[in-house]
Design brief:
230 residues, Arc Repressor Mutant, subunit A, 11 helices, 0% strand, elongated, Transposon Tn10 TetC protein, DNA-binding transcription factor activity, HTH-type_TetR-like_transc_reg, transcription, DNA-binding
Length: 230
């Protein structure tokens, strides 16, 4: 490895250590109670190293938030083994169309419900909830929060809904608006479930309501069992 490559690798390793340390601190203490000093102490680095890579705590928080949302998006959409990383949304949609082509409408509908439940389950971890659903809402601007949600949450859900519409399962509605509103419902559900003492029972109750909400999106043809495909 050349000198330049080694420096790049070292810089990347330093950034990863800072992000990991910040994620642990933000999860345990919350953004407001976490200082740069505590982050670098946990990472076993110096403040000079911190400010070489990040302009401040807010920029580091954004990187932590992006990483978590990326992980959660992939985890929520890998239930049936069809998630693949993608560089262009259109190319991913083509691959998803091919994946779904051989599936029945009932399987597609079941998967949409499964993914909604999985999304909530993944977000109710106390540390992740504090970062993603509590602190992110006031630390980040609304535009930044929406951008990250769009890249790692809403976009993936929108792909499922688009296919369901094409297959005649879900009624034709404004897709971006539907995906954004459904994501908002799921995010609020995460907070509701996480704050209940019996979280498993609360999750079941919440998913009963969400399933009823999703049922209202069905086309008459699909509801009656005569969709475009079996």
């Amino acid at each position: 490895m050349g000198v330049l490559s080694q420096k790049i690798a070292q810089g990347r390793a330093t950034r990863e250590k800072l992000i990991a340390a910040a994620r642990a601190e933000f999860g345990e203490r919350g953004y407001a109670e976490t200082s740069v000093e505590e982050i670098v102490r946990r990472a076993e680095l110096t403040k000079g190293a911190f400010y070489h890579h990040f302009s401040g705590k807010d920029e580091l928080f954004l990187r932590v938030f992006e990483n978590i949302k990326r992980e959660l998006g992939r985890a929520a959409f890998v239930i049936h083994g069809d998630y693949k990383p993608f560089s262009e949304p259109d190319s991913r949609n083509i691959r998803m169309d091919e994946t779904f082509h051989a599936r029945s409408n009932r399987d597609i509908w079941r998967q949409l419900n499964d993914r909604c439940r999985r999304y909530v389950e993944l977000h109710i971890d106390p540390d992740l909830r504090r970062i993603v659903l509590v602190d992110a809402r006031w630390v980040l601007s609304w535009e930044t929060w929406q951008r990250v949600e769009g890249e790692h949450g809403i976009t993936l859900l929108r792909a499922d809904l688009r296919i369901a519409m094409r297959r005649g399962i879900v009624r034709a509605l404004p897709l971006p608006t539907l995906a954004t509103l459904l994501t908002g419902v799921l995010n609020e559900t995460c907070l509701l479930v996480a704050n209940r003492p019996q979280s498993e029972a609360a999750l079941d109750d919440a998913m009963t309501v969400i399933s009823s909400f999703l049922d209202g999106l069905q086309t008459d043809e699909f509801r009656q069992g005569s969709g475009s495909l079996p």
